[in-house]
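A protein record pairs a chain with a discrete description of its three-dimensional fold. The shape at a given residue is found from the number at the same position. Here is what such a record looks like in full:
>
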Amino acid sequence: MPWFSVNFGYEMGGPPPGAVEEALDAVSEILNSDRGWRDWWQTSGSAGLVALLRYTPDGDVPGEAWVRDGVVEVELVLNGSTIKRLTTTGLHEEARSAAGRIVAVARQDMKMPPHPALPAIAAIEQEIREIYYDE
């Protein structure tokens, strides 16, 4: 059962570039399959962490967290004007950064211990190839 999931929403300007969604799917797969991350999340006492990402043409908005039905939800707004100028690797780095901000908001809100290191960009890109391109 995955403890970390990502849901996208968007306002004005269409969805985020596919590379961002692919990278966040990859980060989610990596975190869900990593024992260290699963053990860390169990210290929260919550069933899961749902990232609610909104993509807007404006600036970033600090994350906000709440608990609903035993699941921690964190909303994060991504800056579409910045994202549109990034290369594919830059988009993967932005997705990794967004996952880090989501985890940091949950960690602070739930008063949890430090979390394991986020996956490296190379690991995220390998996971993307495995998920989307069957490599």
Summary: Helices lie at 18-33, 35-42, 80-83, 88-110, 121-133.
